[in-house]
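Quick one:
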Amino acid sequence: MTILLKLVMTILLKDELSLDATKVRRLDAKSLARLASQALKQEAMLSPKPALVDSRGSGAHTDMDVGLLIKSAHCLEPYFCKMAEAATLHPIGSELRRNIGALGRDAELAMRKATNGVNTHKGAIWALGLLVAAATKANTLDELFNDAARLANLPDEGLKAVYLSNGLQVRHQYGLSGAKEEAQQGFPHIQELGLPMLFISRGSRRLRVRRSA
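Output:
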């Protein structure tokens, strides 16, 4: 997930980076959805990823391969577009959260239909849905992460039951945080680790300093 979100942030960044308020491009819904889908496809192809699906093979997975991940990413693009469009119509708040939640559930159904029931991108639907919605409003990375966190912390009023996925079972068993908590905290691993390393790899001398909590 860190690799995936890092790719999306890379695409959203402008060339000019400031020290404490890195600006992001204001893109339309279709562009944001296309970039989100592209990030999923790039993450799938990235190799090597030991024990994970990559261009070399399925790793420890027995139910998915690169082709399935690409198919899943492709089918999710229109749902990311709808999430971004919803965000252009509503401010950050309960109504937008309700819309994003409903669209996310529709996206998951489409994903499972495309993959014959395999959960390829449930966590990515959650994280990227929040980010494409926030990206329609944000002018800086701080605003992007803050708005995504605000959305993530609002209750999903349309959620009737929680599916106990493998990830949730591990979280409960070992007391770990997951994609939900990462988003609610404003994606700290992306801010503190992913982006700084990305800037260094690109040769930027002006590294962004994460806002204080």
